[in-house]
Amino acid sequence: MADIQGSYDDLFTAVPDALAALLEAGDVGASAAVYVDGELVVDVWGGFADADRTIPWQRDTIANVWSVTKTMTALCALILADRGELDLSAPVARYWPEFAAAGKEGVLVRHLLSHTAGLPDWDVPLTAGDLCDWPSATARLAAQAPRWEPGTEAGYHSLTQGFLVGELVRRITGRTVGEFLADEVTGPLGADFHIGLSPEHDDRVTLSVPPPSHDEEYASTAPGTTASAATGTRVRVRDGNSTAWRRAQIPAASGFGNARSVALVQSVMACGGTLRGKRLLSQAGCERAWQEQFSGEDRCLGMPMRWGMGYGLFGNTYGWGGWGGSIVMIEPEARLAVSYVTNQILTPENDTRGLEVVMAAYDGVMGLRA
After folding, report:
1. Dihedral angle at the C-alpha atoms of 356, 216, 58, 46, nearest 10 degrees?
2. Which residues of the chain fall below pLDDT 50?
3. Which active-site residues does the annotation give?
């Protein structure tokens, strides 16, 4: 079996075993972490930080977690809502007046968080360079019309959601999402997660590795996405591996961290808003995350989905995964947060790795309950 580093509680041996099996099956490198009741019970990593498999994955290696970043941006919005600074049922235009253009006066904040705003992409597909231009990317969204009546249908806002929610954070606080997250969440918790990565962290970054038989021109698609739906704004592996991508704030897709930091931050949600003696939001504020906003066929993903406030809902758990395979899942009843972060991208239809790690964590949870 692959060599696994780190530590874990004896009840949770299934998690390092699952990670080792994934590395044996071909993954380049990855980390996995589990928090229960705010305590780190699994913190393991293995494999390599480079495609040539010459640089070992270290404890402080960080990776682009792609759409797992959405859970961090959602948390920022939920904190503002809990403080009474953001009304989730208010029109977006209350905070962002220019957004009322092109028939969007009735778009509510909760529509942005639940992928029901009708703005799943830009009218004109953007380049990776365009995504790094915050004023332009947000102004384009403010000017365009929704593709369906907001609130009536869902369509995964794969890149736009971060700009939409992030602009609300900026309008309310005067800070970018990355700055707000650092000041109010990751800084107080000591979590090694970043949106807008500064240069001093570059030597710890593991670049994303394309799926087998693909190169860095391989571009993002979502599970169930049809060829026609994939003609909009797309991101290549090459784009995500660029310095410009790391520096930019693309709050739906450009977060950098490892499993330990991702699970630590989202453990706040699993523990009723208070972690390590720090209260980030109330129990009621946490519960907003899993209030169902939509249930049905997601017109962009092409599959049934349940959306809460910024998170996907799955039975009694909620969370989200990224294009590259990384994932975070939260179960409030067990006060559980599980994360898997990898540098190895697989084609979406062949990727069950995150689920395997989550299910392995449940073996430990069952042991705790026994």
Report:
1. 30
2. 222-230
3. 67
